[in-house]
Amino acid sequence: MDWEPPQNPGRFTRPLDDLTRQMILDWLGHRRNRWPDTSNPYLIINQQTAVETGPVSKVWLTESFRGQAATLERLRVHRQLDEALTQGPDPLHLASVFGLDPKTAIRYAENARALLATTAEDQDPASSREPKDQNGL
User: Fold this and answer.
1) FRET label pair with 129: which of 1, 67, 84, 96, CA 20 to 30 Å apart?
2) Residue 76 in contact with residue 100, Cβ under 8 Å?
3) In whole angstroms, what is the distance from residue 68 CA to residue 79 CA?
């Protein structure tokens, strides 16, 4: 299942992992049952936007997540970091996928490179800093 943002049709599609795909299908089933006649093309709608064609407001989204462990900002940052770790820390790719400013994309790519290097060091027994005996073991 691919997702294409309604405000930018044809710009890009995103392949979805199985968990995200299932969550979206479940939400779309709920949405279809609750608002069967809506023509709103946006994935997330509420009682007000179900009778319109625009997106929910940022205020509504923020209020909906208030008190939750996952905030919109944390989800956004996690998604961007996951993309950089999965697809490689390529600032051009990050800028294209997320519409980031080039300087921001470079910073995210550098952070991903640092995390990847740290992970590689943690998994490399040769880089261990444990004291060695006189035989180098």
Assistant:
1) 84
2) no
3) 17
97: exposed, middle or buried (C-beta count within 10 Å: 0-12, 13-18, 19+)?
Answer: middle
Indicate if the pLDDT at residue 2 is higher than 70: no
Q: Which sequence spans correspond to the domains of the chain?
A: 7-52, 68-124
Structure tokens at 103: 């300087």
CA distances from 79 to 21, 46, 68, 108, 124 (A): 15, 23, 17, 11, 27
Assess whether pLDDT exceeds 70 at residue 101: yes
pLDDT at 63: 87
Q: pTM for the complete prediction?
A: 0.51
What are the Cα distances from residue 53, in Å, to 37, 56, 85, 103? 12, 10, 35, 34
Tokens for 83, please give them: 């993309």
